[in-house]
Every structure is written in structure tokens, then in C-alpha cells.
Amino acid sequence: MPIRLFRIPLLAGLFLLLFSMAAYAVQPGVLRPMEVSRFPSLESAIRIKGPIYFCGEQVPLHRTEVRERLEKELLLMLWDRAQVILWLKRTGRYFPYIQNAMKQANMPEDLKYVAVIESALKPHAGSNRGARGVWQFIASTARNHGLKVDRYIDERRNYHLATGAAIRYLRDLHDMFGSWTLACAAYNMGEIGLQKRMKHQEVSDYYKLDLPNETERYVFRAIAAKLLLADPARYGFNLQPGDYYRPIPFDRVRLKTRYSAPIVIIAKAAGSYFKEIKDLNPQLLNNVVPGGDHTLFLPPGAAKGFAKRYQPLITKYRKTYKGRSYTVKRGDNLTQIARKNKIPLWKLLKLNNLHRRSVIRPGQKLVIMK
User: What is the pTM assigned to this prediction?
Assistant: First the structure.
């Protein structure tokens, strides 16, 4: 029997397609009607009424150029409404911890807006200057304020740990300059550079200083972020409670290990999986926890009984991948040791938490895998 082909006119086919899409869209629980956007005009949004304070210090809005600089930053932020929505959503996850840490340290809560303008509250944010994390520390400043940064661990990426360092640094800067506004400027450009500018210009007021363009905008951006995020409804951002990202709960455990431990083993002992442990511990740069004393973040409830579950797993792993030690002799170097023991140099370094420039000494024992 021949097959008959039925042709539907183009317009009729299009009508059927649109009708089926409409029927799908109105099914309850599938798609909700979209809301019509309603938000204030840009002109009305920048009609700022004072007084405005940042970290308890009044912003001199009576000065024309100060008002103009603030209006500029506010307009630029409002122009990218999608970015502000993401900021708002992330505040639900990160602000509770930062606010609590600031309160415990007796620091102004407004300093949380520094994290917003530094990184948009993204823990993995990085800059071409080598800054990393929510608080955008460069490596040297991070180390100076208690964070570990090496080829295996980068605590700048963990916002819990980095927030403590930011508090210590900002407190030191405030003690140095006697002003939170100047402390924030120094956080951006460095304390030595700011001191030189202040001395040369004989000015100690941030709003009167001639500074690099980025630093001149810096505090104004933080103030604009405060205006938006502290009162989003005024600017037409009407997020519901369920729209905000929630804080990620966790347990903490302390792990002391002589040799590196695979994250997979940590995950198994925590009743979790590799990615979850990596996400909770963004400071871990590789697939192992290096030898040493570490604080690890685990899923809620995983800390209880962790050591009891971890020990047999790591013991089995060590037996499976049993190695031997090599005692460093006078004249040895890492390349020679790797070649002599027929293992790649990178593996020797990884096993012993070393890097290519690490100093080794005669009598030192290194782990060598078979």
C-alpha cells in the first residue's frame, strides 16, 4: 500500500506550534508567568539625599565633585542590573559569615562591601596582578597576614580563612592611618604608596587626595555598593527570600599527616565525593592534601567519627601504594634523586610536599614510591 504524505500549510503549522507552546506554558508547575520589569529611572536613582556614612565616617556630599564621583559609580552599577542581582544573591551566602566575623572583631560591617567591589563575592576570582579570592589578596600580603600560599595550598581561595586575614590587615591599616576610608584606600594601593602621596600633598583626607584612578574610585564604588545592597528595593531590585543563595553548612576537622593524603580518601571518610570536598576546600590546589597540619571543611555531620573512618582507609591506601624512603646524601639534588630511584621528578616533589627550589639536607629522609 503506498504511503500518503499530508502537507500542512506553513501558516497552519506555525499556528499549531504556537498553540502547543502556549498550552505547555500554562501547565501548572511547569512555567510561571514572567513579571513585568518596573524600576526607577536612572535620573531619580542618583538623586542622593544625605547624610551618608561609610564605616561611621560621613561622606562629604556637600562638595560637588564628591557627589559627582559617587553618582558616576552608582550609575555604572545600575547600568549592569544583572551583575547587581548576582551580587544580591551572593550576599545571602557570604554576608552572614563576614558580618559575624566583623562584629566579633569590633570592626565596621560596611567593610563587607570591600569584598563586593574586589571580587563580586566570587571565591575563585583572580586578577592579572596575581590577586586571588573574595578579598583579592596578592600572595605576599596574604602570607604577611597569616594565610598559607604555596604550590599545594592557597588559603586566599577559602573565604572563611581569607576573611580573618582581611580583618587583620584592615585593622592594621586603620591603626596606621586613623581612618577607615584611608584604610580602604591603602588596601587598594598599598600603605607605602598612600603614605608617600599623603606626605607629598600634605593632605590626610581621602576625598581631597590626588590618587591613582583606581584608588580614587575605590571607596566611592564601595559606597555605591552599600547604597544598592543595603536598600535594593529603592532601586527596583525586588528579590524574594528564596532568590538568595544560602550559606553552605559545613563541619571542620583537623588533619595532621606526615605524607600527602588523596582527597578521594578524605571524601570516602566523610561519606562524600571528590567534588564536594574540593568545593568546600578551594584552598586545595591539587588532588591531595599535602603533609602537614590542616583544617579541612567537610559536609555537615561528617566530622563525627571522621578519624575512625579515615584511619583504615588511609592505612589500606598506604599499603597498596607502599613506598620506601631515601636518605639524602651530601651532594645530592632532587633531580639526581628522582633519576636514581627511577621516578618522575614531579612525583618525588608531590610525595614530599616540595618544589623545585626546595632545599634538602644530608640525612633528610624522602618518600620514594616503588
Answer: 0.79
